[in-house]
Amino acid sequence: MAAQVSYSSTRGQSPELSFDDVLLTGLAPDGGLYAPDHWPTLSKAELKSLAGQPYQVIARAVISPFLDDTVSDAELGEMIDAAYGRFAHPAVAPVLQTGPADFMMELHHGPTLAFKDVAMQLLGHLFAARLKARGRQMTIVAATSGDTGGAAIDAMANRPGVNICVLHPNGRISEVQRRFMTTVEADNVLNIAVEGNFDDCQALVKAMFADVDFRDAVSLGAVNSINWARIVAQIVYYVSTSLTLSRDGEPVHFCVPTGNFGDIFAGFVAKQMGAPVGHLVVATNENDILNRAMRQGAYKPDGVIATQSPSMDIQVSSNFERLLYIACGRDAELVRELMGSLKEGGFVLPQNLRAAIAPDFSSYRASEEATAAKIAQIWRETGQLIDPHTAVGLVAADGARANGLKGTLVTLSTAHAAKFPDAVESATGVRPDLPARCRDLYARDEVMTVLPNDYAAVTDYIRKAFEN
């Protein structure tokens, strides 16, 4: 029987936890992110038996090894069936062929039309079940660059035992993204528009977790990709797609539009589990800290630029810390030193870390002009409308091919074109329609509060809003 996974902070100064505790804790008290002490693996026989199975079957096999015995196999199966029963496509993450060896994985068939739904729908069930079992109430606070907020609110609205507050950068996300958050009628939902950028929102959330008094007073929890359970749920579609497209065990490469690094890190974990995942291509927009880190070794924030792909308008990619932790052999002291230097403007990756990362990852940057041109090209050549984040991924995929990447390559389509209608219309002259299931979105009333980028103002508002 495989050893049960336990979880440690990437910064090494918080207690080791079980999955159940990690789920409900979110960010470690020392400011680090929880990571598993070892990678559960799927044998060749297990992988062979999973090939061609429904998404839900693969999800149970992939997720189960990361959990502890507080969630039974039967209970996990019920949660998975309920979560993915809400998706508009029976395959959950269908794959389209776009070239002889090129594919696009559609991750926007969930309730809020973005890849965040894949993990968040399952998290809603996990949170509700575990809080009920413990007789607990929790306040979830999340920062969003656009899609996490809507997905989290849809998953958590009206669930007993949970309050949820989402911070988004005021005026820096699309109207559709905003409305998926602000039009949900539920007493346990709070929306705050922060006068700042996503990194400001993320910094506020991290400060809340470091504030013991506030954390304990509201029983703070997290659903951003700082929560390990988010990563676990996203591993599934890499396993599923790689098994579908691999021939005789040949690796399948993935190109991922990347902001907070959680989605692509899930692909890295799938590879560690034994799935036939090959190279992982990081696709960034003009907020290219990850591209600079991968190519030059400099992880130095350089001011957030507003782009047509706002979910990637990030200069501090939280989950990159998890990769650094694994790449340096789980040396928490080194990670603590590196992340601490962000306050002084960033750091240069040690050569051994760059060497450890290079076999699995490469990166490419898409300019605003190239992104718009790719949206127009896909429309012109195929009649399909794609969103700007998907376009960033396809630009990077072109770069990887031009630099000699051979074999099957899957680009992740992370959002529906209708979530970014202005950018798509500007590039193609065609305004994408919302799917019928959410076509009344613009008619719904919005509720949100605009607050300054001020820790005291935000935390005071949250305390008062959820006082009982």
Structure overview:
It is a single chain. This protein is α/β, with parallel strands linked by helices and 468 residues long. It has a domain at 95-113 and 228-428: Rossmann fold (3-Layer(aba) Sandwich). Helix content is 43%, strand content 15%. It has a six-stranded mixed beta sheet with strand order 3-4-14-9-10-13, sandwiched between helices. The termini are far apart.
Search tags:
468 residues, alpha/beta, Rossmann fold, 5-stranded parallel β-sheet, 19 helices, globular
Q: Secondary-structure map with pairings?
A:
Blueprint: E1 7-9, H1 19-25, E2 34-36, H2 44-50, H3 55-63, H4 73-84, E3 95-97, E4 102-106, H5 116-134, E5 138-143, H6 147-156, E6 162-169, H7 175-182, E7 189-195, H8 198-210, H9 212-218, E8 220-221, H10 228-245, E9 252-257, H11 262-272, E10 277-284, H12 289-296, E11 298-299, H13 320-327, H14 332-340, E12 347-348, H15 351-357, E13 361-365, H16 368-382, H17 388-402, E14 409-413, H18 421-428, E15 449-452, H19 455-465
Parallel strand pairs: 4-14, 5-6, 5-8, 6-7, 7-15, 9-10, 9-14, 10-13
Antiparallel strand pairs: 1-2, 3-4, 11-12
Helix pairs in contact: 3-4, 3-10, 4-5, 5-6, 5-10, 6-7, 10-11, 16-17, 16-18
Give a concise summary.
With 468 residues, this protein is an alpha/beta fold. It has 19 helices and 15 strands. It has helices at 19-25, 44-50, 55-63, 73-84, 116-134, 147-156, 175-182, 198-210, 212-218, 228-245, 262-272, 289-296, 320-327, 332-340, 351-357, 368-382, 388-402, 421-428, 455-465, and strands spanning 7-9, 34-36, 95-97, 102-106, 138-143, 162-169, 189-195, 220-221, 252-257, 277-284, 298-299, 347-348, 361-365, 409-413, 449-452.
